[in-house]
Amino acid sequence: MQPGIREQAEALFHAGNRLLEQGRLADAEASFRQASELAPDFGEALTNLAFVLDHRGDQVAAEASYRRALQTGADYFELHMNLGVLLATQRRLAEAESCYIDALRCNPDSSAIWSNLGALYLGLKAEREAESCLHKALELDPGNARAQFNLGYLCLRQGRFEEGWRWLESRDWYAALAQHFTFARWSGESLLGRSLVIGYEAGHGDMIQFARYVPLLKARGAARITLVCHPALKDLLQTLEGVDTVLALDEDVPRTGWDYWTPLLSIPYHLRTRADSIPDQLPYLSADSALLQQWAPRLPGGTVRVGLVWKGNPNFENDAERSLPDVRLLAPLWTVRGASLVSLQKGAGEDQLAHLGAALPIVDLGSHMASFADAAAIVSMLDLVICVDTAMAHLAGALGKPCWVLLPHYMTDWRWLAHGTQSAWYPNVMRLFRQNEGGGWPQVVEEVTDALGLMVRARQVFH
Fold it and tell me: What is the pTM of this model?
């Protein structure tokens, strides 16, 4: 290669790096692409081109560029790490693990890559390996928040709550609250005669699950408790014992006016909740009587009325594993005579009902629900809810309604623990159906269908 051409390629490479730092991805891509065309063996340019392509959503082209970089003989940390991250997002976990190990060979002191490898093992339930990697990441960088959070996730999933809640404090979900409120954050001080505002966190399901802590804080003497929540939850959470005011995020939330504020998920940490002291009094939410009257005529008859939810929020990081791709995977449920099925599906997945046809009858109520208060009224009049790991599971549990939850093998959420068929958060009302190692829903649906058949036959005999 002529020296001048190499110099041009390097100049384009450095220009691309500057553009990347400025967030000008399209321009950075053009510079890296030109550099790699001038110098096809320029591994760094190919790696950075792949990085930009990945961030712009073109994973196929990004992987091809990473592979081209490897073919040039490039062997450095960033290349192996970035390719590993791309492969991990596609659940090509064995290939991702190999990339992470190559990255560690290049840079064994990288806290980030130890953390990534720990997260990968965590998803696979290789928990001993995961914990070892995460501790190594924190040994190298005690401030690695991602490693702290993943370690908290692991400890909570094992029921090691003392460690788990402490590590979970590393999360940054409540940064907006910290910036908004101008008064002190609660750190477990006495609440006797004090006022407290509890801030929203994460998703609807988290809000429903941890709202149970409000009555406990009121019992500790809190004079006034305000709960800030997602708009769709406001009416439902007003039925919660101990809450004085419920504010929705789309309302004006004052910056002052309370003694303390706290993120919702920090309460179990400060109250020192352990596996044997989970507040498990059910129900702690209830349906509005007017809504019960409104929805009652729309419910089907039958021996057992069953609500179905097969998809969660598609933006959730593990949604591809926790959600069923198609409602027709649940078709065996329709073979259970005496069971009447009701769709509680809202948003993603609603459109699939049109493909069921007359052979698979279902009453669609989910698409007509305006809020979780509507959902609570419907669920209260059902005999059972069968759902994937979504907010509807927590709603059913909080109402004390029987609920069967279909769980993925990969990245099973910590709150369901690593094993078992029962939930300590919702005792005697929730049953967990888990995928076998390797994943797949047919085995889970078969187990649920058999259990539903037993339930219907038992009801018919009883009646």
Answer: 0.92
